[in-house]
Design goal:
Layout (H helix, E strand, L loop, with lengths): L34 H11 L16 E5 L1 H6 L6 H5 L2 E7 L7 E2 L5 E8 L1 E8 L8 E8 L3 E4 L4 E5 L6 E8 L4 E8 L2 E9 L5
Antiparallel strand pairs: 1-2, 2-9, 3-10, 4-7, 4-9, 5-6, 5-8, 10-11
This protein binds fe (ii) ion.
Fe (ii) ion binds next to loops.
Length: 198
């Protein structure tokens, strides 16, 4: 079985010194949906090269937009086409930290658990007269979850140890809506700018 598409050996990424650079939109090729989970899995497999960037914050979850050049540096060039249209975030989760129910705007995405475990709650409104759907899954290290636009979930670290995950979105996140869910109703409760807090 082929190994994940990761360059090895290679040096660890340097600590961030500025803001992320983004390719010019006109130069960004359309992404293949299959490439998003592949990127998440490959970045998780290359975690040893970026784990030193991770911080933990007791007051709120830590999030970090990984510059495209840094993500490219740990990936096999065969994934650079997918990466050009995507955005990579690193997240840490102390025990008890989590998100509200949220979507990802127009973006599809995938995330991989790198350390610890995360609990994912997924909800969907019911059709008229039908109950909504709700499911919960425990995602341990190595798990990769992928989703399309309009996917609504809540992610929490319910375990007693910290967790780390890597998230890939395409197209890049612009905003995220938060929701409440009561049986069959999914009501939007707010809109947050990507990266501020989710
Ligand atoms: Fe999410």
């Amino acid at each position: 079985m082929p190994s994940p598409a990761v360059l090895s050996p290679a040096p660890a990424l340097a600590a961030p010194t500025g803001t992320a650079t983004r390719p010019r939109p006109s130069l960004v090729p359309p992404i293949r949906r299959a490439g998003v989970p592949a990127l998440a899995a490959a970045l998780a497999a290359a975690a040893d090269r970026w784990l030193h960037l991770v911080e933990y914050r007791p007051d709120s979850r830590w999030t970090h937009l990984l510059p495209s050049a840094d993500a490219a540096a740990v990936l096999d060039p065969s994934l650079h086409r997918e990466l050009a249209a995507a955005e990579v975030w690193l997240l840490s989760w102390l025990p008890g930290q989590g998100t509200p129910l949220h979507d990802h705007g127009r973006s599809a995405g995938a995330f991989a658990v790198v350390r610890g475990s995360l609990t994912e709650r997924v909800v969907a409104p019911g059709r008229p007269g039908r109950p909504g759907r709700e499911s919960t899954a425990e995602l341990t290290g190595g798990s990769v979850r992928s989703f399309g636009a309009h996917y609504v979930h809540q992610v929490t670290n319910s375990a007693p140890v910290p967790a780390i995950s890597v998230h890939v979105y395409a197209p890049r996140l612009t905003e995220m809506n938060t929701y409440s869910f009561a049986g069959d109703r999914l009501d939007r409760t707010g809109t947050e700018q990507a990266g501020v807090d989710w």
